[in-house]
């Protein structure tokens, strides 16, 4: 354990909570697992995150129920509620916790979404955040009037202009006069390749100026977009070395946009498994992996790569000898895992080298925990990632709804606080203050 206990020189960790939902991380067979749609689940997890002094609560998005062999995917059968509606309700039962909604920039329009986000920022007294995502998926596009989809190359072009337009709208009211709570609306006009709009925005500038903008993605386009327009990047990397490489690369891009390195917080999504000893934690982690990848889920994961009906294969038997179908439409609404032929070759090599069955191979390659160990060991590892430039913080993705954060908040957060690596109390009221982000310049917008 580190002996550095300085509270002033130490870099502080940022923490956020991801609500577990329709994904393979969540263990729905556990008797402690509750509803993914009842408000009580959202409220319970959010209250735990706020008790732990987390920066924000994070909701994912799904714009269409995924399909497998023409049937609704098992994990989607209960559906997904709309994020901003849920967070508006949570604003009434939390006081300081940031509220982050994932909303697609491909299938929304700037005026409507900017208005909804600004409203949430007012309702929550400055705690709103927008996780900007894009889609090049024609399957999802079928749910929308515009139909079709954007070419992959155009996704970030639209997203960048979307964010810029939203910020113009948030800035379009005049600053308030002395003693007045709000300014006055003034006309806005935006003319660009993606949007041609003008009018007057209906919501005054919100308590933190602009809602915090989060961007999710590790691609080259995603990194550049985050450097130019985002306040937080939600990423993933499995090792300390990979984290440092991503961190250095992404931070190095900020200067060209006139931004400082601290203007963008890098927060990978992680999972944590705790035990009273390292051996107990490893045993628990292995049990969770087996729950996440049931025999049925193993075949589903295999079909996602192979693009073929593999229901006749034994999950405890060897991998298929046939090659994947790279043009398959067997799975709709889910991203195939990389290049199918390359992934299959990698999985076969691993299976042969270790003598793994289909299920064991899927467990080895897709179900993993980021931090496994005692509370002291996990606190040390999290602190090391941040102190050595691999992350600014973490978005925790628990495997249970809604009690999956309880152990972390009760057993790890106090240790981080003792180190001076994490706050003991909220020091501000807005999400920007929690994250240490600068207030946005009031540029204004006029027709």
UniProtKB/TrEMBL annotation:
Oxidoreductase among keywords = yes
Q: Which domain of life is it from?
A: Bacteria
Q: Where is the Luciferase-like domain?
A: 32-390
Keywords noted in UniProt: Flavoprotein, FMN, Monooxygenase, Oxidoreductase
Binding, FMN: 102, 156, 219
Annotated Gene Ontology MF terms?
monooxygenase activity; oxidoreductase activity, acting on paired donors, with incorporation or reduction of molecular oxygen
| Claim: Oxidoreductase is one of the keywords in the record | yes
Q: What does the sequence similarity comment in the record state about its family?
A: Belongs to the NtaA/SnaA/DszA monooxygenase family.
**Name of the protein in its database record:** FMNH2-utilizing oxygenase
Naturally occurring in which organism (per UniProt): Streptomyces scopuliridis RB72
